[in-house]
Write a structure and sequence with these properties.
binds 3-[(4S)-2,5-dioxoimidazolidin-4-yl]propanoic acid; alpha/beta; binds fe (iii) ion; 8-stranded mixed β-sheet; 8-stranded parallel β-sheet; globular
């Protein structure tokens, strides 16, 4: 038996691979399987060694199968001293880049003014649009950097960042460039999404269809090199199904993926339309009826749940977790980090809330922040699991068992992070 040559060995760790049962985790050079993920929801492997070559996982094998290295080159050995290791966390839905904040609006909401009412009065998203248009690209990078550092301190190695507070060509591009710069300047993978169809900008008030034309004909073509997907807010206070569908068709025509904010405050039916159009994910979905879950499953669309927005808006309607589970829809969990409905910079807290508020198991919540979040970005097999071929994005935890990662509130057990095999925290 011979193993492919590697330049790093992670040994002495307890692994939560988060790989689906049956996933082959390691083979010898002839392709003979040496280890597969078992039935545990965490894909646990008690005593295995991860071989990494050029920043990617080459194989994972039981320690007993490890042979002496061939002496073909230097191998760095990293000893976990019994600590738990998981894939680097994936935050698959954020609005991290924006100008200003909305603490004042929060105060109004505490005094009883509803979120939708604030939006109708020109506050809400449009208030962040004003401050984002006013901010320089450097200012946007600087403020987002602080929030991103908080996420990364908890083991996040991949983050999606949306535009959507520009609502004109120039500012949407400025936001996407700021997001791309965060990847260039920090040790994190950034996936960018165009959310020009977030709200109707003031200059198009009462002319929503004209704005949708601008999004389809100008903003999407101008932004297509700076993003991989297009998102839209389909809601009674934003875009209807026909308008959202137009935006998505324009995105697909440009070769971009689609995803949608849907069924958050009311039911529109957009989640299933988006799924049928090939959406990566449908997000929020508190008002999704059970009967729609089958379609999501059939289309391979991820359901992204956002407990931060649920909590901050004091929503009482729960997403249809039992029906999603029953239909076999992959569930992702994310911060929705944004200045209005979810000023959250802790993905671990979201995992805790997904369990305590939405009734997910710890295994489901952790899969939602790793494997399924990767799928929501079209990055399955690249990030989000410990398996051959994935980048060696790893988070190390000072815990006795995987549930303890999500158990504490305001407690961060992440003690080390590796990005492409290089220690970054
Ligand atoms: N739903 C959300 O949760 C965010 N956008 C959206 O369509 C909220 C954005 C904000 O309030 O600024
Ligand atoms: Fe959002």
């Amino acid at each position: 038996m011979k193993l492919a040559q590697v330049d790093q060995l992670f040994t002495g760790f307890r692994l939560a691979t988060m790989a689906l049962p049956g996933t082959v985790l390691g083979t010898d050079l002839d392709g003979t399987p040496l280890l597969s993920a078992g039935q545990s929801c965490f894909g646990e492997i008690p005593d295995a060694v991860i071989g990494v070559a050029n920043g990617r996982i080459a194989w994972i094998v039981p320690r007993s199968m490890l042979l002496e290295p061939d002496g073909q080159g230097p191998v760095e050995v990293i000893d976990g001293h019994g600590r738990w290791i998981t894939p680097g966390l994936v935050d698959c839905h954020t609005h991290l880049v924006y100008g200003g904040n909305r603490a004042n609006e929060w105060e109004s909401r505490l005094n009883g003014v509803p979120y939708a009412e604030i939006a109708r009065q020109g506050g809400g998203i449009l208030s962040s649009v004003r401050s984002t248009r006013d901010a320089s690209e450097d200012e946007l990078v600087r403020s987002a950097r602080g929030r991103l550092e908080r996420l990364m301190s908890e083991g996040v190695t991949t983050v999606e960042i949306k535009s959507g507070y520009g609502l004109d060509v120039e500012t949407e591009l400025k936001m996407l460039r700021a997001a791309r710069r965060l990847e260039a300047e920090m040790n994190v993978r950034v996936v960018t999404t165009l959310l020009a169809a977030h709200a109707v900008p003031p200059e198009f008030k009462g002319r929503t269809d004209d704005y949708v034309d601008l999004v389809c004909k100008k903003i999407i073509p101008a932004a297509k090199e700076l993003c991989t997907a297009v998102d839209a807010f389909c809601e009674s206070i934003a875009f209807d199904c026909a308008q959202t569908t137009r935006v998505f068709q324009a995105a697909i025509d440009e070769g971009l993926r689609i995803k949608v904010h849907a069924e958050q405050l009311t039911y529109t039916g957009m989640a299933v339309i988006a799924a049928e159009m090939g959406a990566l994910s449908v997000d929020h979905i508190e008002y999704l009826p059970d009967r729609d879950c089958e379609t999501l499953a059939r289309c391979g669309t991820v359901a992204t749940l956002l407990p931060g927005a649920f909590y901050c808006l004091r929503e009482t309607r729960l997403p249809p977790v039992a029906a999603l589970r029953q239909a076999g829809v992959p569930i992702a969990i994310s911060t929705d980090s944004n200045p209005g409905s979810s000023p959250v910079v802790s993905l671990l807290l979201m995992g805790n809330m997904a369990c305590n508020l939405f009734g997910l198991t710890c295994g489901e919540a952790l899969a939602g922040m790793t494997r399924n979040a990767a799928m929501a970005l079209g990055l399955q097999g690249e990030v989000g699991t410990l398996q051959p071929g994935c980048v060696a994005d790893l988070a190390v935890w000072n815990v006795g068992s995987p549930p303890e990662i999500l158990y504490g509130i305001g407690h961060n057990p992440c003690v080390a992070v590796y990005k492409n095999g290089k220690r970054t925290l």
